[in-house]
Write a structure and sequence with these properties.
Blueprint lengths: L19 H14 L4 H23 L3 H16 L17 H5 L3 H7 L6 H9 L3 E3 L2 E2 L9 H4 L2 E3 L18 H30 L4 H17 L4 H17 L4 H17 L4 H36 L1
Antiparallel strand pairs: 1-2, 1-3
Helix pairs in contact: 5-6
Length: 306
């Protein structure tokens, strides 16, 4: 039957295994993503190194074959969700280890809310409760594409398929929602503070103009006191006019004297009035004479009647 097939190693180990900084970084990453062994970190790291090397060679090469390979690599990385449609080949060089670990099946099961923690997500996958695009997947390190991400769910035959299962109910759901709301509020406050700092940094630039305006205002205030002597002159003129006004009083006295003179003159026509009274008295004396004449007429009329 021949020699059994020997699988080639798919990852590369670090040059020095006892690097303190690398050990601490790997410890933090393994806690964050629920990794059980260093081999999983080495596989993800070697995956990035492979595509970085290919991208460097394709950036330099301008042949027809290079263009075809460039399109193939960009299409593959976009399907895996590592790049966007607007990204270019240079963006491949900026990929990091966390970008690869975010696309693992274990991470997506936890982020979709199908498990309470990373360790529980790993358990569900290895116990054959998870399916991807209708296929049962038992490898937590499986890279999920963008199309398969929407088809991630529990198997219909699994007892975890029911949402009322106690292992799927999160008792700390309300607490997590409150924590997320607080984080968002803190981010909004931080953004507002940054915006206010930027506006405060921009405002001092216009301060020289404000100082010039203040100087102009101070100059106008200095100019205003110069007008005060004119005001004093006006006040003096007003006072002079007030002093001049009392002078016409003698004229009033003269008028009063004239009026008094007219009053003295008015009594003179009284004799004429006396004359008129005398004339009236004379007329009264004349009237009786007429009355005396009237009886004579009556007498004549009586005689005629006889």
């Amino acid at each position: 039957m021949g020699d059994p097939k020997k699988f080639r190693k798919k990852y590369s180990t670090p040059n020095h295994p006892w690097n303190k900084d690398a050990i601490e970084v790997n410890r933090v990453i393994s806690r964050e993503f629920g990794l059980m062994r260093k081999k999983e970190i080495f596989i993800a790291d070697s995956y990035i190194k492979k595509y970085r090397k290919i991208a460097k060679n394709l950036i330099v090469d301008r042949g027809e074959q290079a263009l075809k390979e460039r399109e193939q690599i960009m299409k593959k990385l976009r399907n895996l969700g590592l790049l966007t449609e607007e990204s270019k080949l240079d963006d491949v060089l900026s990929l990091e280890l966390k970008d690869i670990l975010e696309r693992r099946l274990q991470t997506l099961v936890f982020k979709k809310g199908l498990a309470r923690s990373m360790k529980q997500a790993r358990q569900f996958i290895t116990h054959r409760h998870i399916k991807v695009a209708g296929k049962e997947i038992t490898s937590p390190s499986y890279f999920v594409s963008v199309d398969e991400e929407a088809q991630l769910s529990f198997k219909e035959t699994s007892h975890l398929f029911s949402e009322d299962h106690p292992e799927r109910v999160d008792p700390n759901k309300d607490v997590k929602e409150e924590a997320e709301a607080l984080k968002e509020a803190k981010k909004n406050i931080a953004e507002k503070d940054v915006a206010e700092e930027k506006t405060e940094e921009v405002k001092p630039k216009s301060e020289p103009k404000v100082e010039e305006k203040v100087k102009g205002v101070s100059k106008t205030e200095e100019v205003k006191p110069k007008l005060e002597p004119k005001v004093e002159e006006k006040v003096k003129e007003v006072s002079k006019t007030e002093e001049v006004k009392p002078k016409p009083e003698p004229k009033v006295e003269e008028k009063v004297k004239e009026v008094s003179k007219t009053e003295e003159v008015k009594p003179k026509p009284e004799p004429k009035v006396e004359e008129k009274v005398k004339e009236v008295s004379k007329t009264e004396e004349v009237k009786p004479k007429v009355e005396e004449s009237v009886p004579k007429v009556d007498e004549k009329s009586s005689e005629v009647s006889k």
